[in-house]
Amino acid sequence: MSARPLVDGRAQVLLGDTTTHGGVVVSGRRNWRSFPKLLAVFFAGLCTNACQPFALANPQNPMITLHTSFWQIIESIQERPGLPLAHLEDTLHQTLFEHTEKSNAYFQFYAGEPVQLGDGIVLSKLDLRLPRQSNPNPALLVFTLQGTCIDLQQLQEKGPTAELKITGTPRGRSVQEATTHSAFTAWGQLDFGFQQAKPECVAYVTFKPKTGVTPSSKADKP
C-alpha cells in the first residue's frame, strides 16, 4: 500500500487515479463543502466508459436508434395481418402515443418518436390511424423519411417483390405532390412517394392493409 502524499506535513486524500481519471488531491483537513464536488469528479471518472450505454437522449430531440434496416422494418410490419398496435410497438421498439385531440368517433390517431435505422434512413415522422371497432375502414400507417436517400433503382432491387405500379402523379399545384409507386402484396398495398421537392428520393411510405382486418388499439382492448 503506497503512503499518502504529504503537503505541509499533513496527510493527503487521493480520489481517483491521477493518471487516468483526473484524480484530485484533497488536503487532510476536513472540507465538507467541497466533498460533494469531489465525489462527483470521482464517479464521473468511473463512468467514463462503463456508463456510456446508459447515456440519456436529448429531451429536446428524442431519437430511437435501431440496427434494423428499413427493408427489415417493412417486412416485419407485413408479418401480421392489418396494423396491430402491439406488433408495431414491438417492431419500432417504443410505445406509440395517441393524439387524443385528433382522434374521433371513427379513428384513433397515434404517433411516435423518430427512429434512426441501421442503414442511415430516419423515420422522422410516424402517423398511425386505427379505425374503431364500429368503423369498417382499414387502418393506415405513414412513415416520413429522411437521411439516406432511397432512389427508384434501390426500391426496385430491395423493396417488395411485387411489381411496382405508378398509381399517382403530381398535378403541378405543389412541390409536396408526389409520383406514387405502389406494390400490391399478399398483405396489402405499399405506396412509395417521390415528392416534386426531391424527386430522386422516396419521401414517405404508406402502409394500407387489406380490408376486413380489424386491428386492436389500446382503447378497444377489453
Could you list some keywords that capture this structure?
two-stranded antiparallel ribbon, alpha+beta, globular, 222 residues
Low-confidence stretches: 9-30, 35-59
Helix percent band: 10-25%
- Domain count: the total is 2
Gyration radius from CA atoms, angstroms: 27 Å
Number of helices: 4
User: Beta fraction of the residues?
Assistant: 25-35%
Give the terminus-to-terminus CA distance: 65 Å
Shape: globular
How would you characterize the overall build of this protein?
With 222 residues, this protein is α+β, with helices and mostly antiparallel strands. It folds into two domains: 6-53, no CATH class; 64-209, no CATH class. Helix content is 18%, strand content 30%. The chain has four helices and 14 strands. Strands 5, 6, 7, 8, 9, 10, 11, 12, 13 and 14 form a ten-stranded mixed β-sheet that branches. A hairpin with a 2-residue loop joins strand 1 and strand 2 (10-11). The longest helix is centred in the first third of the chain and has 16 residues, at 35-50. The chain is globular and about 40 Å long. The N and C termini lie far apart (65 Å). The model is unreliable at 9-30 and 35-59 (pLDDT under 50).
